[in-house]
Design a protein that fits this description.
The complex is a heterodimer of chains A (326) and B (329). With 326 residues, chain A is α/β, with parallel strands linked by helices. Chain A is built from 13 helices and 12 strands. In chain A, 34% of the residues lie in helices and 23% in strands. By secondary structure, chain B is of the alpha/beta class. The relative contact order of chain B is 0.14.
Chain lengths: 326, 329
């Protein structure tokens, strides 16, 4: 299987008023054609910054290190012209808030046809016909007429469908969706996830889904990466990780979600404290302060990712034993 | 004995920008009761009217009609001093503690303001504030910190301390944990449970998150378009949801380990705009079971033998096996 996206040892540092903050500390990931990869983490874990670094959307205050290769090409070396030709055609992004990612002053039709005309070289009427097809594809009724509407005339779920139509317009090889359903009601979230599923299945598009919601991630992705304080702490196939997490942080994340079926504990199992923001000390495990299993080694040496199963890896000195994972 | 009794509560907002005076009904004849030491969860999607219920209860926005009784007193007609006194019985915790705390006051001063309002003399305030901080699990040293120096979870603890300062019997939590990270959310939910067990507080817990409600609430009311469509004990509603909307809501929730790529979307479309004129059942346009009667006649909230209430013409047609179990298998 050929990898569409290969990220190696990605680091992102922000410099603000002379102070340096590290947002991403050595993230590596691979996405194969047609694969659905999830990045899950809490606020400040670096999941969105990772996604934005891949799209080259970070501001000039960000120093990006490491390597990003898309279909073998060095993304960090792209010049502005190459970036403009690449974005929209080969890679596309769907953001959390569809109202702020659509231009409120342009008709929806204009925004869908923009990429079609630019990247696929379609003429005006051909682009419009294709836009109608796309709107129908994402489940918007009366597509012909709705093309002339402005974003404000659409509901939240409909706007996100428009954004997905725009992202899918040129059948990119990779779609990065950053919290695409977080602003939506749960019944609408379900429809949008179904839609993303259909699109990726039809065109063999690879998807990176970024979310804080382990439920959303595990219902959609083949493989997940759990991020904490700018690092991937656990990675592997969704089913393996959800069924038997090896990293105490992943375990804690799973435990702290009340379930809809079965017995409920009187109290939810918790980890103390809150996720770190900004500076994380190097030379120790970032989770050590909150970890119920932390030992001296965790505070003096940063763990590296090691295999915890045939297909899974975790960055932990003392990964949970098979019995403790169940 | 119910601490809060709400009867036919209706909330209307004037619509801005219209030439004629148009009102939209955000809450339509809602009734429920909460007993001391119990939690009523109010669930629903955006625009369902759940926050409007809270605002009407707190008298932030005066209800158009209906009655709200707290500790046996009618509160919809209170004015001036009596209204201030009433607020000592019922307090609110909001979604975003950063917006609801005064950023120019320290955490301790934020709580102190509530103590002043409750008539606690100034010399006693420092020790009372410390006690409150201890109850919500914050070190006493945090009284001197400003909201921006605290994490989201710590700020929400300060909000809870402030709400408890006046010694309320009822706490209204409007999406109180929704903005928090999952690992922090669990801590705050545990704290709320502990406080309830210690003081016998009654909670009205508003959330769009069904799994949170299953954990915290003894009873749940499901709202759709300003009306309660289902009301019962959590155990009943989650195990045997009767209203097609409740079933859709539960089926749509992605749970870790529930398996990938089952069809999630059970119902099509979205809730109609809040100003839509509805005849009959509000859910009918999206409902897979809707028939002619649903479009013309509004279903009443009817209780079954177990006290589980549903507003649906076809509540009995809904298969008995629960959706939640079905989708998790």
């Amino acid at each position: 299987m050929t990898a569409i996206l290969e990220v190696d040892d990605l680091t992102v540092d922000f410099t603000r008023q002379g102070a340096r903050t590290t947002a991403v500390r050595g993230v590596s990931l691979r996405v194969a054609a047609g694969e659905r990869v999830g990045i899950v983490g809490e606020s400040g874990s670096g999941k969105s910054v990772t996604a934005q670094a891949v799209m080259r959307l970070l501001p000039p205050t960000a120093a990006v290190g490491g390597q990003i290769r898309f279909a073998g090409q060095d993304v960090l070396g792209f010049d502005p012209a190459r970036l403009a030709a690449w974005r929209g055609a080969d890679i596309a992004m769907v953001f959390q808030d569809p109202m702020s990612s659509l231009n409120p002053l342009l008709r929806v039709g204009t925004q869908i046809t923009e990429g079609l005309r630019r990247h696929r070289g379609l003429g005006k009427s051909a682009a419009r016909a294709e836009a109608v097809r796309l709107l129908r594809l994402v489940g918007i009724d009366d597509a012909e007429r709705r093309l002339d509407d402005y974003p404000h005339a659409f509901s939240g779920g409909m706007r996100q469908r428009v954004c997905i139509a725009i992202a899918a317009a040129c059948t990119p090889k990779l779609i990065i969706a950053d919290e695409p359903t977080t602003a939506l009601d749960v019944t609408v979230q379900a429809q949008v996830l179904d839609l993303l599923d259909e699109l990726t299945e039809q065109h063999d598009t690879a998807t990176i889904l970024v979310s804080h919601d382990l439920g959303v991630i595990s219902s959609f992705c083949d493989r997940i990466l759990v991020m904490y304080a700018g690092q991937v702490v656990e990675a592997g196939p969704t089913d393996d990780i959800v069924a038997a997490p090896a990293h105490p942080y992943t375990r804690a994340l799973l435990d702290s979600i009340p379930r809809l079926v079965g017995e409920l504990p009187r109290r939810l199992p918790t980890v103390p404290g809150s996720p770190p923001f900004g500076d994380v000390p190097t030379g120790s495990c970032a989770f050590a302060d909150r970890c119920p299993h932390a030992q001296d080694l965790c505070r003096t040496e940063a763990p590296v990712a090691r295999p915890t199963g045939s297909r899974t890896a975790a960055a932990c000195h003392f990964p949970l034993t098979m019995e403790a994972r169940r | 004995m119910s601490v809060v009794t709400v009867q036919d509560l209706t909330v209307r907002y004037p619509r801005r920008g219209a030439f004629r005076k148009v009102e939209l009904t955000a809450v339509d004849a809602v009734s429920f009761a909460i007993e001391a030491g119990r939690t009523l969860g109010l669930a629903g999607e955006s625009g369902s009217g759940k926050s409007s219920v809270a605002r009407a209860l707190m008298r932030v926005h005066d209800p158009a009609s209906g009655s709200v009784q707290v500790a046996g007193r009618e509160v919809t007609t209170l004015r001036g001093g009596a209204l201030r006194t009433f607020r000592a019985h019922m307090q609110m915790v909001f979604q975003d503690p950063y917006d609801s705390l005064n950023p120019r006051l320290t955490a301790g001063e934020n709580v102190g303001e509530a103590l002043t309002a409750a008539g606690v003399p100034r010399p006693d305030q420092v020790s009372r504030t410390r006690e409150l901080f201890e109850r919500v699990g914050l070190p006493a040293a945090f009284t001197g910190r400003y909201p921006h120096q605290l994490s989201g979870g710590q700020r929400q603890r300060v909000s809870i301390a402030r709400a408890l300062a006046v010694g309320p019997q009822v706490l209204v939590c409007d999406e109180a944990v929704s903005a928090l990270d999952v690992s922090v959310r669990a801590q705050i939910l545990n704290l709320l449970k502990d406080l309830q067990e210690a003081d016998g507080l009654a909670y009205l817990f508003i959330s769009h998150d069904m799994s949170t409600l299953r954990f915290i609430a003894d009873d749940v009311a499901i709202m759709y378009q300003g009306r309660i469509v289902e009301l019962g004990t959590s155990a009943e509603v989650f195990a045997r949801p009767k209203h097609p909307y409740t079933r859709a809501l539960l089926a749509a929730i992605p749970e870790p380990g529930a398996g990938r790529r089952h069809r999630r979307g059970v119902v099509r479309g979205e809730a109609p705009p809040v100003d839509a004129v509805l005849t009959g059942c509000a859910f009918a346009p999206r409902c897979p079971l809707a028939t002619e009667i649903c479009r013309v006649e509004r279903p009443a909230l009817v209780a079954d033998a177990a006290g589980h209430r549903t507003a649906c013409h076809h509540a009995d047609a809904v298969p008995a096996e629960a959706t939640a179990e079905g989708s998790a298998a």
